[in-house]
Amino acid sequence: MPNKKNDTILLTQDTFDKYKQEYLNLVQVQRPAIQLELKEARAQGDLSENAEYDAARDKQALIENKILELEAILDKAQIIDQSEVNRDKKAGIGAKVTYLNLSNNKEYVVTIMGSHDSNPFENKISNESPIAKAIMEAEVGEVTEVDVAVKYQIKILNIEY
């Protein structure tokens, strides 16, 4: 059920399942629990000086905002089917890519992921990032330019799935 291409959020099945589980927990467990807390706090009387009521309202707002955020993600989600990824010559989502940064002569290894699956600490980069866009336009052995404020070139050394 993807929307306009720019609105689509690419997710792995694992990430989609994680978001779905979090959503269900919020709707089925946390939302009813906070409603009960609010009911109990209201029963204590004067709401103007009821710290428990204020805390429960704040918690409810956080839960409702998170539910809305997850609904938007799940509604726009398109699950990446690894069997449909073009594995001919260019990198796609799920590809592990080794490249050489020609400005500092250092080798890097990254995995291209959807934006919600990216994690820079694990060298998983978003397909929407400038470096991923440059990588996905080139084949092994080609030099391509990374379109950032100070442009630089990289050479694709290896692509594997």
TrEMBL record:
Domain Transcription elongation factor GreA/GreB N-terminal: 9-79
Keyword DNA-binding listed: yes
A GO BP annotation: regulation of DNA-templated transcription elongation
The organism's place on the tree of life at top rank: Bacteria
MF term (GO), any: DNA binding
Record-linked Pfam families: GreA_GreB, GreA_GreB_N
Keywords: DNA-binding, Elongation factor, Protein biosynthesis, Transcription, Transcription regulation
Keyword DNA-binding: yes
Transcription elongation factor GreA/GreB C-terminal domain sequence ranges: 88-161
Family: Belongs to the GreA/GreB family.
Biological function: Necessary for efficient RNA polymerase transcription elongation past template-encoded arresting sites. The arresting sites in DNA have the property of trapping a certain fraction of elongating RNA polymerases that pass through, resulting in locked ternary complexes. Cleavage of the nascent transcript by cleavage factors such as GreA or GreB allows the resumption of elongation from the new 3'terminus. GreA releases sequences of 2 to 3 nucleotides.
Protein name: Transcription elongation factor GreA
Organism: Mycoplasmopsis columbinasalis
